[in-house]
Design brief:
The complex is a heterodimer of chains A (about 200) and B (about 260). With about 200 residues, chain A is of the alpha+beta class. Chain A is built from seven helices and five strands. In chain B, a hairpin with a 3-residue loop joins β1 and β2. In chain B, α2 crosses α9. The chains are: A alpha+beta (about 200), B mainly alpha (about 260). The interface between A and B is large, with 59 and 50 residues.
Chain lengths: ~200, ~260
């Protein structure tokens, strides 16, 4: 009886670790696609951003995050406004991440720790980025749905990208009476400005 | 003697006012009806937001005109020099870190930080080299704001300090206590070298800013409300520092639905 219990727990432990490893391997592949885009000097800034945007949209739970950060305004809006907002948000997310990567200059990185949080069904993957003056740890939160993985959050220096975006969006949404349609205009203008900066 | 009385009075007044103001701050709750969430706190108690936004704009201009260009220049210095300056400044903070660790009952960490200070000040040539890290004495930061939080003092309201940036009532008191009790600053003043105090603060600011140039620019260039983004980042970062979170799994987990991706 004892032996069966031990075997049972051993199998659970092993399967969780295998799951985390699989998630890490997937994440590494996707990060490398983005980093390769930065290394490739033949790419124009526009094409580099488009490649990064495509990779981010494929791998982030963009719609879910968009809904989460919109908060109260989401419920009040009609379907077409929501769709415009999702498109705007996905571009906004890509611009944010691409902008963070602007200073990338061949730093090395290593996925240092991977842990499956069974309570929330989320895998946490720590990535350490090394530079000449030290290192910084970035944590990715990854969830599985329909046999594939989605990134649901990115944490840098204990600051969650999603939580920060929600706070920022809520503050701006209050100014437009939680009108998602009006907010779409603000977000569109911001995206345009950010896009110009990143591609100039 | 009179200085001691002022400090005691200041501490007493601060603790008393926290109890009142912190309770207000704690009453700001997330509306559970509005969206899917776990324990994410959306509301930050910011009753002086218009004033804070004005100071924030001033700081932002000062950063663009003065701090950021200097930090970018500093970043061009040879890496060993940057590391040396950073290590030296960090070592100067160590005595107060030890004090705060003791005040928080972290005896083991206090011993470790004391060891770091002794090793780095001697073998590490006045703290220029972080020899202690190599022998397993890890750096841990603690300040008066964290100590007050550990003692149960609430955040109080959010404040943007001119030049010093985001803070709250508790952390501002912590900052004042740091200025008043820092032994290195006290020594410099007693030796008639008071100019070293603002100089140290300025170099600290440049060193810290140089480490987050890309992050700050990304946030500033891509935020629909930069003020709110910085405010949220500040609170998340401080919360993790107070809880001594080494692991991001303790950062609030947003409930993101991915069923309709």
């Amino acid at each position: 009886m004892k032996l069966s219990l031990i075997i049972f727990f051993f199998i659970i432990f092993i399967s969780k670790n295998l799951y985390s490893d699989e998630t890490s391997e997937w994440l590494k592949r996707e990060i490398d696609i983005i980093l390769e885009a930065y290394k490739n000097q033949n790419l124009s800034n526009e094409n580099r951003f488009l490649l990064i945007e495509k990779t981010i949209n494929n791998n982030f739970a963009g719609t879910g995050i968009a809904k989460f950060v919109a908060g109260e305004a989401w419920k009040k809006s009609d379907k077409s406004t929501k769709q415009i907002y999702i498109d705007n948000f996905k571009r906004h997310l890509a611009l944010n991440i691409a902008s963070m990567m602007q200073g990338y200059s061949d730093q090395t990185y290593k996925l240092t720790k991977s842990k499956y949080d069974s309570k929330n069904q989320v895998t946490l993957i720590d990535m350490e980025i090394f530079s000449d003056t030290g290192s910084v740890v970035v944590t990715w939160r990854v969830k599985e749905s329909k046999d594939r993985f989605y990134i649901i959050d990115l944490i840098v220096a204990d600051i969650s990208l999603v939580v920060t975006k929600r706070s920022e969006f809520n503050s701006m949404l209050k100014k437009v009476d939680n009108n998602l349609s009006k907010f779409n205009e603000v977000l569109f203008d911001q995206n345009l400005e950010s896009y110009q900066k990143i591609t100039e | 003697m009179s200085k001691k009385i002022i400090i005691l009075f200041f501490l007493f007044f601060s603790l008393l006012s926290y109890k009142v103001i912190a309770s207000d701050a704690d009453q700001v709750n997330t509306d559970s009806e509005d969206f899917n969430t776990t324990t994410v706190e959306d509301e930050i108690y910011d009753p002086f937001e218009p004033v804070n936004r004005a100071i924030f704009s001033f700081n932002n201009v000062a950063d663009r005109i003065v701090l950021e260009p200097i930090a970018k220049g500093y970043k061009k210095l040879p890496s060993p020099l940057q590391s040396g300056i950073s290590n030296f400044l960090s070592n100067l903070r160590a005595p107060l870190v030890v004090v705060n660790q003791l005040l928080q009952g972290q005896g083991e960490n206090a011993v470790q930080s004391s060891g770091r200070f002794i090793v780095n000040s001697s073998v590490g040539v006045f703290g220029l080299f972080d020899v202690a890290e190599k022998i397993g004495l890890e750096e841990k930061e603690e300040d008066y704001g964290q100590t007050l939080a550990t003692w149960g003092v609430g955040d109080g309201f959010y404040i943007v300090l001119p030049l010093f940036g985001p803070s709250n009532l508790r952390d501002t008191s912590g900052l004042i206590l740091t200025m008043m009790t820092d032994p290195i600053n006290a020594y410099a003043v007693s030796e008639g070298e008071a100019w070293l105090v603002p100089m140290r603060t300025a170099v600290n600011a440049v060193d810290t800013r140089s480490q987050i140039i890309d992050e700050v620019n990304a946030l500033r260039d891509n935020s629909v409300d930069y003020y709110a983004a910085v405010r949220s980042s500040y609170y998340q970062n401080r919360k993790a520092a107070i809880n001594n979170v080494d692991d991001s799994e303790l950062t609030p987990l947003p409930l993101i639905s991915i069923e309709f991706e």
